[in-house]
Write the structure tokens for this entry.
Amino acid sequence: MQFLVNPSDGLPIYRQIMRQVMDAIAGGRLRSGDRMLSHRELSEQLVIAPLTVKKAYDELEALGYIESYRGRGTFVAAHFPKTKQAAVNAQLHESAQALLTQAYLTGLRLPDVLRIVREADQSLTNGPTPRRKENT
Amino acid sequence: MTNPAILQFRDVHRAFVRGQPVLAGVTFGVHEAEVVSLVGRNGTGKTTLMQIAMGMLFPQAGSVRVFGLSPTDHPVDVKRRIGYVAGGQALPGQFRIDEMLAFHRTLFPTWDPSLEKELLKRFGLVGNTTKIGKLSMGQARQVALLCAVCHRPELLLLDEPAAGLDAAARREFLETSIQLLNREGTSILVSSHHLNDVERLGGRVVLLDNGTIRLDEELDDLREGYCVAIMPEYSTTEAALCQLPGFMRTRVVYGDWRAVFRGAPAEVEALLASSLGITDARCASVPLEEFFVELVGGARAESPA
């Protein structure tokens, strides 16, 4: 997969990598068992420090999204961390409410929000496209 | 880190004019396989520090140790294990590239011809016999980097290596540095005004301000453990902000306070609300460049000394 890092983003580079890996897994662009680039490969591809890649991978591994095996490399995890469905639903409900509040206060209506959600789904599936710089 | 630092500054002082210290007590170290970026405004002593590490200048008080040795007492033992590239550094212009390399090859017993060949190829300089003085700035810097790394130094001192280079040349230089980091595990002390390059190199950031260290933090901790709060000027006073824990500095920009705090954005937002009743402050983690400007940029309001 192709990563994009931007040093002047509000997020530190290791978090940008984490987010893109999680986006790619969520969007189906990375699947269980897919091989990840090594620290060195990704570091040289993105021109960032190898320790930054290591930090991103370590955090992703701690969260259960990737697994690394000595001598074999790093792979997308076979099973993703199980969380209680009820807790996830509650959290999503809260996020959705916050999203709708923000939208309604700026005069958008439900169909507009659904369109935006669909667009977001597309970009998860299709991978990063250059988009407007987020406010930091 | 438990290993002793391979480069250690201890309470280093240096002035070039009596009563106007350039360095006024600087203490920090660079450990094995570590990258440390030295940042600070022009004239804050970055180059002076590098030159002290190279043994080109004495500290007037305090000490510097490189691999445990004094660089002025053991210049050969120290220089053999260091590579040095400075932005303003001039390799003698009357020599040709191949002559310059041949000269360095005889200087260093650990010179690695295969690395030399590889870098010459990467930089497109194979068989090039141009005089150094006739090269473009980018190519001259590449030759300087070649001369600095082919003896496989354990410590690289890069003093504004990117100064005056275009964006593409800077990126090539950075690519080579990253590859060296990957392959050799070289320790690097680099000073730079290109803070995006500093973000790419990662590691630790040491901010020099008026000859002293203002901040010494891991880059990611700096990015996530500090924030800038923006709130209208009428909402509070500098005196009130100064009282808050974690406060570092504030200034007014176009009618807003911009205050730098040690603390994550959410914590600082909560702190401003609970202590000063400010509920409309916007707190955000910012890239290194913004952070730098807020911390040492031109100010109407200075933080207390």
DSSP finds five helices and three strands in chain A. Residues 9 and 133 of chain A are 8 Å apart (CA to CA). The radius of gyration of chain A is 17 Å. Strands of chain A lie at 35-36, 66-69, 73-76.
